[in-house]
Design a protein that fits this description.
The protein has helices at about 30-40, 55-60, 65-80, 120-130, 155-165; strands at about 5-10, 45-50, 85-90, 115-120, 135-140, 150. It is an alpha/beta fold.
């Protein structure tokens, strides 16, 4: 049984951040994500993608279109023997629903001191902080966050940290 959870934002962390990615022809992997996730999966972490997808309610793409991307993500990770869960908020920001980050509705799991959230926006870090996640890692070249506990300017910097430093902590 896995004890810790690695939460990942989707757009900007799992795949390149292009506004409103609703089709596979606009979905491009951050290839480093496989090595990052594999590191934590081997350390017995559950992997959960938590993603705001207001493009669904805005009508930019359908829930079926979005589901195709989810299937693609699951298939690719499953081919690497990694199981993960995808949690989605399809709502427009004006609804201020409980599941839309920076709210905490996608983070209702039992908390461990070793849980980690990796995101690319301050809203990811704020949601994780409000949910009691102690390790909040931001990947961004230009976004600063007082809610993040570590900031990496690229996926490669995060990989370097994991290989060089994380095992020592």
């Amino acid at each position: 049984m896995r004890k810790n959870i690695l939460y990942l934002d989707r757009d900007g962390v799992v795949n390149k951040h292009i506004p409103y990615v609703g089709s596979l022809d606009r979905f491009f992997w951050h290839n480093e994500i496989f090595e990052i996730v594999n590191f934590f999966y081997k350390e017995n972490y559950d992997i959960k993608i938590v993603t705001n997808q207001s493009g669904i309610e805005r009508g930019y793409f359908t829930f079926c279109d979005y589901t195709e991307i989810c299937k693609h993500i699951l298939k690719e990770f499953n081919s690497k023997d990694i199981n993960l869960e995808i949690r989605t908020c399809p709502h427009h920001p004006a609804k201020n629903c409980i599941c839309r980050k920076p709210n905490t509705g996608m983070f209702l799991d039992k908390r461990s001191k070793n849980d980690i959230m990796i995101g690319d926006q301050d809203s990811d870090m704020l949601a994780a902080r409000k949910a009691g996640i102690k390790n909040r890692w931001l990947i961004s070249k230009n976004i600063k966050s007082n809610n993040a506990t570590k900031i990496f300017n690229s996926h490669n910097n995060l990989l370097n940290y994991l290989c060089l430093d994380y095992a020592k902590n």
